[in-house]
Prior knowledge:
- The chain has a single domain (11-263), classed as 3-Layer(aba) Sandwich (Rossmann fold).
- Helices cover 45% and strands 14% of the residues.
- The protein has 8 helices and 7 strands; from the N terminus they run E-H-E-H-E-H-E-H-E-H-E-H-H-E-H.
- It is globular.
- Bound molecules: NADP nicotinamide-adenine-dinucleotide phosphate.
Amino acid sequence: MYSPxxxxxxxxxxxxxxxxxxxxxxxxxxxxxAKVIICARKEEPLAKAAAQLSELGTCVHRPCDIxxxxxxxxxxxxxxxxxxxxxxxxxxxxxQFPSLARYISDNGWKAVINTNVNGTFFVTRIMANxxxxxxxxxxxxxxxVNHFRGFPGMAHTGAARAAVExxxxxxxxxxATYNIRINxxxxxxxxxxxxxxxxxxxxxxxxxxxxxxxxxxxxxxxxVSNAVLFLAxxxxxxxxxxxxxxxxxxxxxxxxxxMVDAFR
Length: 264
Ligand SMILES: NC(=O)c1ccc[n+]([C@@H]2O[C@H](COP(=O)([O-])OP(=O)(O)OC[C@H]3O[C@@H](n4cnc5c(N)ncnc54)[C@H](OP(=O)(O)O)[C@@H]3O)[C@@H](O)[C@H]2O)c1
């Protein structure tokens, strides 16, 4: 639906681009003319994804754990060497696991906060200092979750993504002077590989959650990538510091307690 040259010659980094939503965003960017870098921790599936994506255009990859700032610096070195610039950063890498809050261990809590908050901040700060601020131009889209009315059943990720949403508002203001825009996309339940990791009882809730949804469906990867590409493009030139929900209204109307009720 977008012009096939919308991102011609733009350079975009998609974290977590080896699978699911990140892969779909990378694919969409490539189809619209961008050169794409993808990163993730697992080397083999990352290389396989990059090989597939390369059929659509220039796609390079590098293993990188976003929680380790030295690895993120090395990723920036690669981008500098290959392309000499970066135009778009999509902070998509992230993860969580369903649990009643009372059973989340110290390690479980720290892992979710570390990936989703610290990792997102490290990538954002490093890419801004290396590329966006010197270039006086850049665009950042953070994938968060629908945490509008809290996230019972995944309280750690609700807290982490609320932090990222607030960080987005701060950075949008601090960095407007450098012509950098930064926004969030908050997906509801999206049919993608991220759901594969959930235990069977949680997967069984998906049909019920679909019935709760006023549009009577779950989201698709394309629903999310269309929103990300809108925010990453000049079509949203006057929009920064905001969150676009891609959730079929779940943030206004859904049974947020379904998962908790099932666990109890
Ligand atoms: N699917 C949904 O319903 C839904 C809804 C709302 C929000 N989201 C969010 O959307 C994003 C993508 O979700 P998805 O469904 O596509 O899940 P996914 O397939 O599990 O994607 C997560 C990606 O992030 C990478 N990743 C995780 N930790 C990382 C780290 N420390 N450093 C670098 N890369 C890391 C993973 O690769 P490695 O394991 O190889 O590192 C993977 O490629 C996630 O942030 C997710 O929480 C998903």
